[in-house]
Amino acid sequence: MNIALFGPPGAGKGTQAKELSKHYKIPHISTGDILRANVRDATELGLKAKEYMDKGELVPDDVLIGLIRNRLTEPDCEMGYLLDGYPRTIPQADALTDILAEINKPLDAVINIEVSDEELVKRLSGRRSCSCGESYHLMFNPPEKEGVCDACGSGLYQRDDDGEEVILQRLAVYNEKTKPLIDYYGNEGLLVNINGAGAVDEVFRDICNVMDQHK
Ligand code: ADP
Ligand code: ADP
Ligand code: ZN
What we know:
Blueprint (H helix, E strand, L loop, with lengths): L1 E5 L6 H12 L3 E3 H10 L3 H12 L5 H12 L8 E4 L5 H13 L6 E6 L2 H9 L1 E3 L5 E3 L26 H15 L1 H8 L3 E5 L4 H12 L4
Parallel strand pairs: 1-3, 1-4, 2-3, 4-7
Antiparallel strand pairs: 5-6
Helix pairs in contact: 1-9, 2-3, 4-5, 6-7
């Protein structure tokens, strides 16, 4: 199953991808998580990416295209993959098409999670994250023990880019650079819209209904 989860920042891509990856036993490939791991380890890539991430800007396309090419050619993608946060620009989507043709794993569907701007701001401002990739929400999805990850027991933190001002910048960047991909994948016949406003398990069920068609 070859799937891309698509949607604005805060739509619930990461939350859903974690569960879907377990359910369908395909790797969850989050470019945001890969970049943050590089920032944490202070790699050359991480140092370069951090400048953009802290401002709510996109990291340059050439960096992301190299990163996703390396990741998709790893052996665990043999049975499929679940992309989260890539592609975010038209050049990234074009490069993805080429890479997937080379490895003979074209996309089955692009699942677009739709959520209103008002709700996105609420979700992002209350988000609390874990270095293991899990994310929680102070009100909508609190961990069992305050400030502690249910999955791994580490302490939760607020992402540097989840402050009010950077949130608004990320939404603006989404509208300008990423949203055009809705038409791009619509024209390819790959786009499936999902209402992301419901509870986590409702959205999960709706996405499974789409993914089950591609088993
Ligand atoms: P994305 O990866 O698309 O940026 P996340 O999965 O990190 O989004 O979700 C953003 C925030 O919203 C998190 O705090 C998460 O716990 C919360 N969240 C995710 N899905 C829902 C939902 N269906 N209802 C309410 N809150 C949600
Ligand atoms: P979100 O919760 O906004 O969906 P992500 O964790 O996916 O956030 O991404 C965080 C940041 O990492 C982005 O604001 C951007 O700076 C960078 N990033 C992640 N994926 C990409 C990408 N495909 N292209 C460019 N930058 C990216
Ligand atoms: Zn954790």
